[in-house]
Structures are given as C-alpha cells and as structure tokens.
Amino acid sequence: MDKKLIVRPRRAALGKTNVVSVRLSVDTIKRLDAITDQTGHSRNELIQMCVEFGLDNMEIRDDN
To answer: Is the pTM of this model over 0.70?
Structure first.
C-alpha cells in the first residue's frame, strides 16, 4: 500500500464528539508522542487522524 497519512497543521475542532477509551501499547504511545513533539498536534488529534485514515482506506474481505 502506497498511501500515507499526511499530518498537516492544526485545524478547528470537528464539532460534536464522544469520548472513547482504547488501550495502546507503550511503544505505540511513544511513537505518537514523538509525532506530537514534531507537529504540535495533540495525541488525541493524531489518533483521530489515524482512525479516519484507516476507515477511509479499509478494505474488508471475506476470505472464507
């Protein structure tokens, strides 16, 4: 897959949201925090970008 998640400067809030709890590995959190240091985005913003990218680029297969 050649698609990349492009992280751009911060934008305005996305309107109504809900809180969701998720468990992530320590290594994943460290990677996210390194990106927050580089970009100025919050950890929450980056996770939201990653989830949206994954949903937009997901392919579901029934390989039975």
So the answer is: yes
In angstroms, the CA 64 to CA 59 distance is: 15
Tens digit of each residue's pLDDT, the chain (64 residues): 678 887 777 666 667 888 999 999 999 999 999 999 999 999 999 999 999 899 999 998 888 7
- The rounded Cα 52 to chain-centroid distance in angstroms is 7
Structure tokens given for 46: 């980056």
Q: Is residue 14 part of a domain?
A: no
Domains of the chain: total: 1
CA distance 63 to 2: 23
At 32, list the tokens.
């996210």
The closest of 59, 42, 34, 48 to 5, measured between CA atoms, is 48
8: three-class secondary structure by DSSP? coil
